[in-house]
Amino acid sequence: PSGSRVIPAVLSEERLVLGAVLKDGSRIRGQYKISHPQPKLTRLQQTPKPQSFTPRHTNRRERSGSGSSISRHRQVVKSSLDISSLHASPMSRIAFLLNDPTWRRDVQRNQSLEKNAASPKQWSDRHEVSPEINPLVLDAISNANCIVYGCGSLFTSVLPSLVLDGVGSAISSRNVHKVLLLNGWHDYETSWTESSGSDDGERLVKQMDATAFAKAVVDALDQGDSTCSRPLVTNYITHLFYPIGTEIKIDEQSLASFCMTREQQPQRQKFIDIQVRGIKSIPADTCSEGSRSGGQSHHSVFDPRALVDALLELASEEKSSQR
Questions:
Q1: How many other CB atoms are there within 10 angstroms of residue 177's CB atom?
Q2: Per-residue confidence at 116, pLDDT binned at 50, 70, 90?
Q3: Which residues of 198-219 are buried (b: 16+ CB within 10 A; e: fewer)?
Q4: Is the pLDDT score of 247 beyond 90?
């Protein structure tokens, strides 16, 4: 749109690589391997689909914007996901690594020694770097009347800019609305497998809920908080917008409990709990961005006009409160 600016987050001439740490301690090097894991020869079992439910915050309007039927969340595994490719543990954090031209050759050599085996070579903390943030990013944050965490792959698209030094403290110090946009469906970064505990080696599919999304954003911003102040959750996120029909589970009570984990800190924000709001959606395969992201007809994405209107409404509320 006219007047938009795209600002590079990192100020560096070095070639950087993304790395991910999983909760089981294993590490992955490279954005593609994080977001597109390779199939594993493991027997998997999909978790049963829970019953649909209607949260208190559900917008009662269908995608068309009319009618009285109630839209419902559904927690399912995205049908286009190759379940045998899911990571064996949830993501814990993201990191920046320096590019190493010898890494690919070493990995290929190790894989040729034992076909289909994962390479034993993993990056360690000493491979991590802390790239300098572009000061224009901090300037944009300081002048924003609303801060929005966009949709996209959580660990490879959204979080890398948030872990940079200075971003967390810059965002937490602003007394403006801060909106987390929830995705319409799960991907390989928000789904993983866990052992079922049975003797036959079956594994269960697990997925992040909305609270886990919020926690991942807060943890990343804590990394980028140079003051180490651990502010209120709502100093980072005041609102959560979701496209009606999202397959990501939303539990307002769980979100409220998460916000309470820091309530002992000085309250600088007007909101104590994250405000949840459903936004009119459209089928993902009816727009170019949704189709490019692997969206199908049963997946939901934000209706662009409805989302823009909701964000402008928030920004106008902020201006009115400051008068």
A1: 24
A2: very low
A3: eeeeebbbbbbbbbbbbbbbbb
A4: yes
At residue 298 the predicted structure's pLDDT band, cuts being 50, 70 and 90, is: confident
Tell me the C-alpha distance between 266 and 232, whole Å. 8
Rounded Cα distance, 118 and 30, in Å: 14
Query: Using CA atoms, how far apart are residues 162 and 149, in angstroms rounded to an integer?
Result: 10
User: In angstroms, what CA-CA distances link 230 with 167, 184, 218, 219?
Assistant: 13, 29, 9, 10
Q: What is the spatial distance between Cα 29 and Cα 7, in angstroms, rounded to a whole number?
A: 25
How far apart, in Å, do the first and last CA atoms of the chain sit? 28
Structure tokens that stand for 293 in this block:
């992201």
The two tokens of residue 39 are 């199939």
Give 211-227 pLDDT, tens digit per residue. Answer: 999 999 999 999 877 67
Under 8 Å between Cβ of 20 and 140: no
Burial class (CB in 10 A: 0-12, 13-18, 19+), 197: exposed
- What average pLDDT does the structure give for the chain? 80
pLDDT band at 13 (very low <50, low <70, confident <90, very high): confident
Residue given tokens 């991907």 in the structure block: 187
Backbone angles phi, psi at 94, to 5 degrees: -115, 150
Rounded to whole angstroms, how far apart are CA atoms 236 and 179? 9
- Alpha-helical runs (H) found in 49-193: 101-113, 135-143, 167-172
Cβ–Cβ contacts within 10 Å for residue 306, how many? 20
What are the helix (H) ranges across the chain? 31-35, 101-113, 135-143, 167-172, 210-223, 252-260, 288-292, 304-321
Report the predicted TM-score, pTM, of the whole model to 2 decimal places. 0.80
pLDDT for position 40: 63
